[in-house]
Every structure is written in structure tokens, then in C-alpha cells.
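Recall the central idea of this unit: under ordinary conditions, the amino acid sequence of a chain determines the structure it adopts. In this exercise we apply that idea directly, starting from the sequence alone.
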Amino acid sequence: MINKQWEWKTPQINVLLEQANLELGRLGSYSELVPNIDLYIKMHLQVEANKSNRIEGTQTTIEEELMPLRDLDPEKRDDAREVHNYIRALKHGVDRIMQDDFPLSSRLIREIHNELMQGVRGEHKTPGEYRTSQNWIGGSMPSNASYVPPSHNHIPDLISDLEKFIHNDTIYVPALIRIAMIHYQFESIHPFLDGNGRTGRIIIPLFLLNSGILKKPCFYISDYFEIHRTEYYDALNRVRLNHDMIGWILFFLKASVETAKSARIKFGMAVTLVDEYNRLIPQIGGSAENVQAIFDAFYNNPIQNAVVLSESNSISKQTVSRILTAMHEKGILDEITGYSRNRIYAMKKYLDVFRV
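Accordingly, the structure predicted from this sequence is:
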């Protein structure tokens, strides 16, 4: 149970907490000032989905995940579907909080899990419902597992306690400390038969939105967790084995500092690159409106082909093909198939901004 007042005597936490709040404040201010930030956030979210699912073992690249499923090798499609579901689940949570003014709660967590598990591996493991049997992490059975979560009989009380902690305004626990503890507790409860890691990582940006720390969904921490995967799991396990909550909080705050700083830098790089491309639009030739529409389509999804662009923008395929050829000649696009027909183009410089 975590719904209580928490205190610490570790000065390093105070320093890191100050740094994390400062970086989050800078990110929040920047995200509210940048034109078209929602487009950039979409690509930032795409990288988050890729990294969060890679922690769970998926192997698809961001380019593959941006392509239509029919164009992927069959063995890659399941991985891509899981990434698509992650994006859909996160967007669902964001919409519920920002548009419906719905609180981060047990009900919303179950809704997110339901979206996450539709039509993918684990879809028969009661999507959107807390488990009614024992599960475990690692090993072939509880006796040789690396971690055995609490019995399913305790889940209602544990989730209720977690939900109260999320919204308890009678205790004085800073928001970033609180979400660090929420993430740890959710992962330790492991309330679903599958998809707990991804659901737990989705909860982090939703909490920051729900608590008003950020006004835009622009903070995604899975990239840091994926890069420091061993340290991430070790920090969680040390709480379970040695009650080292301080160590976990220090890791989480450091991750928050680096994540917020990295996001602000990426958005700045995206703005600079888009400004550079805007100056090239008159050199492409033809209708500026059509050219701008094609550029905007690539900002929305950096992997495109002429047929989809023609249909989605109501521009003739001949015109689209001419624009794509000109953009390719200017070095704005790369052709990634090597085919003479049915070509697929990638705005790689733009994509690279978000995955560095």
C-alpha cells in the first residue's frame, strides 16, 4: 500500500527534483509556444511507442511501423500492430483526460489496456480486465520466476489504494515523486495477465496531464528506459528485494530530467528543419498549395507513396509524382524501395530528429 505521506532524508532527491521540475517547465512552455506542435508531438509519440514496445521485445523499426501493414513482411506485422495499438491506447488516454476531463483512474487504466490488447498477442488474456489468476515474470512457473506479483485476490484493494494515492490532496508528495511511486507500484501489482509494462509506461504522461504539470502530451520516457533497460529493471527490483524506493526515485528523476531536456531539443530541431523546408517550397514548382499539402502529409507521417498521397489530398497522381520527384532531387526525400514503380519515399531528416 502506498497511499500515505512519504518523506525522505536524501538531499540528492531534492536537487534532482528541482532539475526535473525546471526542465519540465521549460518543455511545457516551449510546447505551448511552438506552432504546429501537435504534428511534432505525433512523431514524438511514434518514437515512444517504438521504444516502449522494444522493451517488451518487438523488433520493428520506426520506418516499418509507419508503413501500411500490407507492405510489411508477414513476420513483422504482429510487432507493428502492437506499436499501432500502443499509439491508439495512449491517444485514447490523452483524449479522455484533455477532451472529456476524465480523471486518471482504475476505469481509464482498464480502457487503455483494452485498446492496447485488441487484435494482438495477448488479445485472449482478458483485455481491459484485471487478472483473476496468478501471473509471474520470468521463468516457467512461480517457483522459478524472477518476480511473483501479489495474488489476484489482493488486486481490488491494491488498485483502490493506488487510485487514492493518485488523487490524494491531503498528503504532501511532489508530483514527480508521486508518479515515480505510482509507476513502481503499478508494475509491482502487475494487475493484468499481459501488457502491464506498456500500460504502466502510458500512465506516466497521462498523470502529468491529469495533474496539470503539462498542458500538451509531450513527455515520453520510454526512450530513456529502453536505453537504460538493465538499470531500469534493476532499480524496480531493488525496491521489491531491498525496499530501495530512494534508489528508484533517483533513477526516475534522472530519467525525467534527460527526457524533458531531450524532447525540448527535438522540438527545436524540428522547427528549424521545417523552416528550412518552407524556404524550399517555391523551388519545387507548381501550385504552392499542393506542395504544402504534400509537405504536411510527410510531417504527419514521414513514410509515404504517391497513391496514398493522391487519394488523401485529392491531388492527381501525376502531380503528386512530379512533386515527389522534385523533393527527392532537392534531397528532402529518400526513395527506400529501389523500385522503378510503387515507390515509397521517406523524409528521413525529419524522422531522424525524433529518434536521435
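The first strand starts at residue 303 and ends at 305.
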